[in-house]
Amino acid sequence: MNHPSEIQLSLTESAGLNTEAMPVSLYTDPAQYEIERERVFRRAWLKVGRVEQIPNRGDFFVKDIAVLKASVIIAHSEDGKIRAFHNVCAHRANIVEHRSRGNARRFVCRYHSWGYNNAGELAHVPDEPGFFHLNKKKCGLTPVSLDIWEGWIFINMAPEPEVSLKAFLGPIGDALAGIEYPSPEHALVLRGEFRANWKVVAENFSEAYHISSIHPKTLGPIYAGPLNPFSRPISANVHGAHRTMSTWLNPAAAPFANAKFAQWLFTADHSVTGTRKEGQTNPLIEHEAINPKKSELWASDVNWFFPNWHMQISANQFWTHEFWPTSASSTIWEARFYYKKAETVRERLQREHFTSHITDTMLEDLGNIESMQRGMESGAKSFVQFNESEILCRHGLEQVVKWSAATTVKDALG
Ligand code: FES
Ligand SMILES: [Fe+2]
Predict the structure, then answer these.
(1) Which residue has the higher pLDDT, 263 or 402?
(2) How many whole angstroms separate alpha carbon 65 and alpha carbon 49?
């Protein structure tokens, strides 16, 4: 077929990726999962939150990272600095903080009440004279490396990270700098655990090829149309370990603005799929790296930061997905849709409408994710095939293979 001129062809080859089928064992082999724990998740910088989650001194949240069997406190300390620590007591290694978030001057281990200040220093030991050779200065909470890029909080679980966050992000960090995120302090969070490998879950949100097939009534009419029936992307770029893609908007989708289902997508102030109004401008649309081809027929961008974080952007909104492995074949998926807090009853109802529809749409995805994992584990197929439109999936998998083999992070990034 003739693709419209907006569509960039030969994405895979022009990005320098291979075009071969890829092994199913990457999603099913327990040995591969063990390698990914140490070589991917313990060495990569992992996005765990945004600064707006902990705006005040004493604010904290806890991130449990099952793939590394770790629990981490991210705290806004009294001195204004944001720090991360292992959530593990220096007395006899109990978990210290059991709340998922809050505000605390002290983290007190409930077992024997050792207390730590929110800079992680050991501040209180009951019956201190009863200990032998106790050096309180050496008994703080064990620090975890933390750095912040554009308001996004990253941690690195290596005892000493081999590269800085800046070096890890490389060109994607520069390209996506300076974005003015609308309403970053207010997110609708969707969360669930699914019986599928984390890469299967991440890949679902990284390609539009499935949209006309499994979302025919919801997303299909927006992302596909007679001009582009299989939702070929407008463009895709790989940036070191990371990757971006711009999805196409069906110009004939506008009439759906009056249809019932489309209200949640087309509500003027928080549409999800790039429903730019004629003449509309805002800092998101104008940013150079967003919709980099500045196509008129642009729906949204997928920015997939290695290994497990997506930041997606449309003309009016941004949203994120995280994919946290809990085993070789199970994953916690967390999505955050950011939009301004409802100020009127009408806006509140729009949010509820949006929530119920986005949940239904996600369920269309998630049922297929679990059955795909079952099919992979059956052993019937040794390889999976990737279409041009699935370039981000291919690049993601190639990077996992690269990091799994590389003895140093510099080699993995090289
Ligand atoms: S294990 Fe924490 S106070 Fe004893
Ligand atoms: Fe989908």
Answers:
(1) 402
(2) 13
